[in-house]
Model the fold of this input.
Amino acid sequence: MTMNTNRHWKRLGVSETKTESLRETYGEELRNMGRTHSNLVVLDADLSSSTKTATFGKEFPDRFFNMGISEQSMVETAAGLALSGKKVFASTFAVFLTRTYEQLRQSICYNNLDVNFVVTHAGITVGEDGATHQIVEDIGIMSGLPNMKVAVPVDSVETKSIIRYLVDQGRGPYYVRLTREKFPVLNDPSYEFRPGKATIMKDGEDITIMGIGVMVSFALQAAEALKSKGIDARVVNMSSIKPIDRKAVIDAARDTGKIVTVEEHSIYNGLGSRVAEIASEEYPVPVRRMGMRDTFGKSGKSWELFDYFHMGVNDMVKFAEACFREEPRNENLS
Amino acid sequence: MEQYNAVDLKNVARNIRRKIIEMVYEAKSGHPGGSLSIADILAVLYFKEMNIDPLEPDDPDRDRFIMSKGHASPGLYATLALRGYFPESLLSGFRKLNSKLEGHVHRGVPGVEASTGSLGQGLGIGVGIALAAKLDHRNYRTYVVIGDGELEEGSVWESLMAGSKYHLNNLIAILDRNGVQLDGYTRDIMPLGNIGRMVESFGWEVLEIDGHDFDQIISALEEAKKATDRPVFILANTVKGKGVSYMENNPKYHGSPPANDDEYKQALEEIGGE
Done:
């Protein structure tokens, strides 16, 4: 599971760090929790070898339900199991869960059930499979559902912590967004996820970069580059999208006066939108959002796509510097 | 458990129908047609067949009922009130603010197992509940009422596959085959073909009955209890709006209450009782 420095990430400017798979971590942690929690049941829709729920399914075949390529039925069945007192996890690719929006809305969220949707292959890091599979609007869709909570782990350590939290203390409905690609490991093993709690990865006073997922890794690299330009950037991991850490946003606005958001997602209904809402309501400061702009993804290698969509480390440095120096605004910096 | 004979069940069904009319007329909205068509089935389920106790609504061994066609809320709410889950006086709050009796079936109402209203989801929920019974080695059964227009939702067929795959002999789907949906007759809107043969080919045991004949309803539900390996699908041929002449087979009364006092009085007179 652990890899040494991945040359692809290195190309993006993310250096000297090991990467680990979030979905493999998910499958292993699910299996580990299954050993101590007999109430835990898992569903998948013919993607278990990719989402890694198969790791659980192999050890607990009686508590694992492969519903076939029938996501609607998977979500409804998850509801029935939760209504009967089970702790339910259900997985598929992020893009395919969204076809069950109405099942999520009525059967899961309206009934307010303890079902935890841990989806994989979100965002453009799906890579070669292309636009059909690269969903960049899921956070907005899920955040809009009453009762649904949303988390985007930054690395394998946080993924593991979220799964443990959901099994032991948390309660669905929850949406947890994982990826196909391995991501750099940023947290040390003692890290513990708390809903509604952001994490300052690096403090700074000139500007704050708030990010989710792999963009936090990019932000840490960007912060290094900004330092050489005399800009001291704070980097915050906003993994808990809902509930969101309003205080972290207000602190960033007050302490640094400017905020840049970075996400492997559309800027129109994701992290950037939430941060801008909170800043404008509570402590208005300039907020600039980096991410996908009302567009579909594209086939290509993940690291090529970040460059193609101007979301790489170098783009982020320019973006943050422009915000810091209050250069005239362009609709798109590119 | 109390035992009801066919005559009593007829009285129960008549009372359910009266309440349905009273509720939708008081609310000036709601869905009488598809509630009236399943009144007899609801009477048999709640007053004879299901292992339930309104005083123990959380008993883990209770039979479960899912009203997948959630617009038939007047039918289910009336049945639950008459069965003693909550006072009949609360029925007048149907569809009103500050009442628990939401327009479509709502889990906040005592006796309701799951909120429904958007079609095509209840059978899948039933699959999950039936799977949980197997996991927990409990003997309760799960009953799901679905509408025939609802069969046009593809998700129903996903759940038919799943029920068959997991050999859910503790799951019983009851189809309210009344032939009418909001926009007209199912044969015009979306012909459903030979439903019995289709469902059978998905691996279910199919029993076809007259959904207004108490003896047939009872014997089908008893037969369903003998299932050993397959889930059971009771294809109940019914009449939309059953019991109120101007509502019968009339798409208008899928989602409209009696239009005026005359229609209201006529409906109650034709239903009889009280």
Notes: The longest helix of chain A spans residues 22-36. Chain A touches chain B through 28 residues (CB under 8 Å). The longest strand of chain A covers residues 259-266. The two ends of chain A are 36 Å apart (CA to CA).
